[in-house]
Amino acid sequence: MATLKGKVSSSSLSNLEKENSKFHNIDDYSDSVWAVPEGGSTCPPVSQQDYSFQFPLESEDFLDEGYDSGEGHYSSGQKNMPPEVNLKNVLNGLVAIVTGRNKDSSVSRGQPLSSSNVSFLGSAKNGDTFLHSSVYIPSAPPLLEASGINYSAYKEVLEADPPEWLPDSSTTVCMQCTAPFTALTRGRHHCRFCGGIFCRACSKGRCLLPVKFRERIPQRVCDTCYDRLDPLQGVLINTISNAVQVAKHDVMDWTCTRGWLNLPVGLLMEDEIYKSSNMLRSYCQVTRLNPERSIPTAVLKGAKGLAILTVAKAGMLVAYKLGTGLVVARRPDGSWSAPSAILSVGLGWGAQVGGELMDFIIVLHDYKAVKTFCSRMHFSLGAGCSAAAGPVGRVLEADLRAGDKGSGMCYTYSCSKGAFVGISLEGNIVATRIDTNLHFYGDPYLTTSDILLGTVDRPKAADPLYVALEELYSRFRC
To answer: Cα(277)–Cα(462) distance, rounded to whole angstroms?
Structure first.
């Protein structure tokens, strides 16, 4: 009895079933069968396509019944013909799939396949098969759990140490695109994560770095390091960004110099939060001492948002204005959104003279006005009356604001310090400070609309601002 090796085509399997009586346990549908020769081992499933595998044949007489070794196929008069497709074969195939007759007996007993060391099937005492409970375990565990597939790779990145930067003289070309460096068009830039030297085009990405780098502001990295750090940005934003840190500047009484005078320009979001909190507390004190000088209750209760900023103004006939601040929106549930930093630059023309420092509270009375502040830049035009003599003064303005996100009416109330008097027509340009938001939140994809109208969590670093807002609105609940 010889054992032959060859290629079997499923087109001849129906003929094999009729001609060879030495084989048994052959299913009736032609798309997939299992053939078990007497004394032989179980054969793998055969599909409609041709597959090469070792197939034991016990009889040389089988060669005379139509085996063509030159073609490598079993034939019985209809060579290379596709299997017949009819309703019976289709129904038999469906029945075989449902009943499991197309499965290997080793699989039905829960034995692992030869190509895998994992078994998903088990066998009960009554002979029934069942799926192991491990099949129902989620295949994508949380990012930083030890059972995660890429946990070791993520852990390596999160625990990385700051590298030693390569000297500029170590290479004359970009380490990624190999383009030569030039003085003006292609300068050198170090990747903050790996320390390599790259051109601007190959190091455009900004990412937060792991804890050991002691950086809470997104840093420039090369494209390769960006791909490694990008999946971990959500973790880093929620752990090391400036927004999740505890507010450090929260003392606003006479013992703190910065509590006496709000500077017109704040470099960081933390400075804007402190100025706004101090301004709201001062306004609450003025309101308690002189309620007539406060913002009308109906206007303040109906506000959909507040813009709070400090502006320096000086000039004669033509006055120049510059200042920074932040804007927060009122959510439908009554809570306040995360803050967004803004910059204001403007001109005033009219009968005016002097200089003053103004603390503005701009009431956004509808969501159209809030959407205006969601614009990257918007314009405002209005008329105002200003009078300041010494440490206390008043400025009242009503203006129309328009930007690419919409337009709306706003009411401006402020306290001023200095020596200024005049009536003027005011024009301002208010821009969102995108870099300041990026440095604070650490997310380069975060937009102003996400901050004011989205679901961005209130940052822990802005807790003094929310305490001051609660104090401002507490009198409405009395």
So the answer is: 9
Residues 6 or more apart whose CB falls under 8 angstroms from that of 220 comprise: 189, 190, 191, 192, 203, 205, 206
- Judge contact between 454 and 443, C-beta under 8 A: no
Q: How far is CA 169 from the centre of its chain?
A: 37
Q: What is the pLDDT of residues 55-103, one digit of tens each?
A: 444 444 434 444 444 444 444 444 455 566 677 777 787 777 777 665 5
Phi, psi of 269 (to 5 degrees): -65, -35
Phi and psi angles of residue 274, each rounded to the nearest 5 degrees, phi first: -65, -45
240-250 pLDDT tens trace: 999 999 998 88
Q: How far apart are CA 26 and CA 36, in angstroms?
A: 8
| DSSP 3-state of 276 | helix
CA torsion 406→410→416→418, rounded to 10°? 60
Angle at 462 between CA 356 and CA 373, to 5 degrees: 60
Q: Give all domains of the chain, ordered by start, each with its CATH number.
A: 6-102 (no CATH), 151-240 (3.30.40.10), 257-476 (no CATH)
Joined tokens for residue 59: 């009889």
Residue spans of beta strands (DSSP E) within 199-248: 205-207, 219-221
Q: Six-digit token pair at 453?
A: 């109208």
* Residue that is written with structure tokens 């001051």 in the block: 468
* Cβ-based neighbours of 437, under 8 Å, separated by 6 or more: 269, 340, 341, 446, 448, 451
Residue 313: name the closest of 351, 355, 345, 342 by CA.
355
Residue whose tokens read 């948002």: 305
Cβ–Cβ contacts within 10 Å for residue 205, how many? 20
CA contacts within 13 A on the Cβ side of 130:
10
How remote is the C-alpha of 9 from its chain's centroid? 51
Strand blocks (E) in 109-196: 121-123, 129-131, 189-190
pTM > 0.70: no
